[in-house]
């Protein structure tokens, strides 16, 4: 394994949290993702379903978890299934989890091979009152491909049409939104590697580099530090490209005088980090670029203070919008009188700042969470205001990740430079070293 996983104690704690929300007689079933095909005999790299990873730590295909707290036999209260391994598989595909390794990592005493799943379900489902089935209830999910979990859910519903069915997703969103200590440490590891990649890039950028060369530097730094790579497709956009919110082609030249917007973050042990920084191609911001940069930075700092326990996300977003409005007026981008007359449902600031300020972060970069409940201690969010001015070929977004605490928030990016002058200084000193 190239990363240090969480401990069995934490996986046990995650499962205990789930059980707390189960009703009597419930049997919860979680499946891993499929290995997705490409064409011919090709496959995509395996990406584990994040819920089963959260509950077991098993990052392997064909994994299943059963949670059945009221099972008659205590051995049936938690059962983990892992894909059977043998010498043939070991030679062609490499090591897979043995039952003992899976037991040690997950802390689940009963580990069976996945080919025992059907028979086990037939044995246990009649004991259960209802089945807890999982599904993707992310607010922005949009999936045309049926997952393994959806396939298995259909089978279960056909086999046991008279069992009650309950949704696991709301429970998962609730428990995953408040991070355990080890999860925060894992996110911090991801962030620290992302920070190293940012420093590397600051010493690399000069007029004429291609956006994908920057991407390559980042990827290199991620992998050499034990990450499997990007937590999401990175955005490296210079000049006008910074205004294309989901720009991922990263294939243009960075020209002198432009600002490059870089939104990237590594994945470590399944956990995501999510950074955005903007740096001047020539090593120094122009006056106008600096003014826009500092406006975004001020909004970010105000947002840090607003994102506190008890606050509703919708109110927070509205308040950040109001602060942004003031900055856009000062930059001459909005007219104060027009703003006074604006339709509150369609505020004018959205012309220059058209996305949300914060999202949950964790095993998924746009992590699951409770959008309609107050913010609470232990949640981890991004804070990422931006100003995009296509007419000036300028887009600035600054994105940090923060942990909500009872007595104050922790900026998990505290060690990653953000002040315009710090970045200029870093670029100048690296450039000097390169010349020497
Ligand atoms: N990197 C995706 C986002 O910032 O939300
Ligand atoms: Mn981002
Ligand atoms: Mn983000």
Brief overview:
With 436 residues, the protein is α+β, with helices and mostly antiparallel strands. It has helices at 8-20, 50-56, 87-93, 99-106, 117-124, 148-159, 169-177, 181-202, 211-224, 287-306, 313-330, 336-340, 420-435, and strands spanning 26-31, 64-67, 78-82, 110-113, 130-133, 164-167, 229-230, 235-238, 259-264, 266-268, 271-272, 275-280, 380-383, 386-389, 394-397, 400-403, 410-411. Glycine (GLY) binds at residues 232, 263, 274, 359, 365, 384, 399.
Report the total helices: 13
Q: How many strands appear in the DSSP assignment?
A: 17
Bound molecules: glycine, manganese (II) ion
Largest sheet: 6 strands, mixed
CATH architecture call of the largest domain:
Alpha-Beta Complex
Classified by CATH, the class of the largest domain is Alpha Beta
**Quick check: average pLDDT?**
96
Taking all Cα atoms into account, the compactness measure Rg is 24 Å
Number of domains: 2
Report strand order across the widest sheet.
Answer: 4-3-2-1-5-6
Give the N-to-C terminal Cα separation: 40 Å
Helices and strands in order:
Layout: H1 8-20, E1 26-31, H2 50-56, E2 64-67, E3 78-82, H3 87-93, H4 99-106, E4 110-113, H5 117-124, E5 130-133, H6 148-159, E6 164-167, H7 169-177, H8 181-202, H9 211-224, E7 229-230, E8 235-238, E9 259-264, E10 266-268, E11 271-272, E12 275-280, H10 287-306, H11 313-330, H12 336-340, E13 380-383, E14 386-389, E15 394-397, E16 400-403, E17 410-411, H13 420-435
Parallel strand pairs: 1-5, 3-4, 5-6
Antiparallel strand pairs: 1-2, 2-3, 7-10, 8-9, 9-12, 10-11, 13-16, 14-15, 16-17
Helix pairs in contact: 8-9, 10-11
Residues 274, 359, 382, 384, 399 line the site of one manganese (II) ion (MN).
């Amino acid at each position: 394994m190239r990363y240090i996983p969480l401990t069995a104690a934490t996986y046990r704690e995650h499962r205990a949290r789930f059980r707390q929300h189960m009703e009597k007689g419930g049997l919860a079933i979680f499946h891993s993702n499929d290995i997705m095909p490409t064409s011919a005999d090709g496959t995509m790299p395996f990406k584990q379903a994040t819920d089963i990873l959260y509950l077991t730590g098993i990052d392997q295909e064909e994994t299943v978890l059963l949670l059945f707290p009221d099972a008659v036999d205590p051995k049936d209260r938690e059962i983990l299934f892992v894909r059977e391994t043998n010498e043939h598989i070991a030679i062609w595909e490499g090591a897979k989890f043995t039952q003992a390794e899976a037991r040690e990592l997950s802390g689940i005493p009963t580990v069976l091979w996945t080919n025992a799943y059907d028979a086990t379900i037939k044995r246990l489902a009649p004991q259960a009152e209802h089945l807890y089935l999982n599904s993707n209830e992310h607010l922005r999910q949009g999936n045309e491909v049926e997952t393994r979990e959806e396939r298995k859910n259909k089978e279960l519903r056909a086999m046991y049409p008279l069992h009650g069915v309950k949704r696991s997703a709301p429970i998962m969103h609730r428990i995953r939104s408040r991070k355990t200590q080890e999860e925060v440490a894992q996110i911090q590891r991801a962030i620290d590697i992302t920070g190293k990649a940012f420093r590397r890039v600051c010493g690399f950028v000069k007029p004429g580099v291609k956006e994908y060369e920057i991407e390559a530097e980042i990827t290199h730094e991620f992998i050499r530090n034990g990450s499997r790579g990007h937590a999401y497709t990175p955005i490296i956009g210079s000049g006008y490209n910074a205004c294309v919110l989901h720009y991922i082609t990263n294939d243009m030249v960075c020209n002198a005088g432009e600002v490059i917007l870089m939104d990237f973050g590594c994945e470590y042990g399944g956990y995501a980090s999510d950074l955005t920084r903007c740096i001047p191609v020539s090593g120094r911001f122009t006056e106008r670029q600096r003014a826009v940069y500092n406006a975004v930075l001020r909004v970010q700092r105000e947002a840090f203070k607003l994102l506190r326990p008890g606050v509703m996300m919708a109110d927070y977003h509205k308040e950040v919008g109001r602060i942004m409005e003031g900055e856009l007026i000062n930059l001459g981008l909005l007219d104060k009188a027009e703003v006074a007359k604006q339709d509150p449902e369609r505020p004018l600031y959205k012309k220059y700042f058209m996305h949300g300020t914060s999202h949950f972060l964790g095993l998924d970069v746009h992590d699951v969470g409770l959008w309609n409940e107050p913010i609470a201690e232990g949640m981890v969010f991004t804070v990422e205001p931006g100003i995009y001015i296509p007419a000036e070929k300028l887009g600035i977004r600054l994105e940090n990740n923060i942990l909500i605490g009872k007595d104050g928030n922790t900026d998990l990016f505290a060690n990653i430079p953000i002040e315009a002058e710090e970045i200029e200084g870093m670029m100048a000193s690296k450039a000097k070293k390169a010349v020497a």
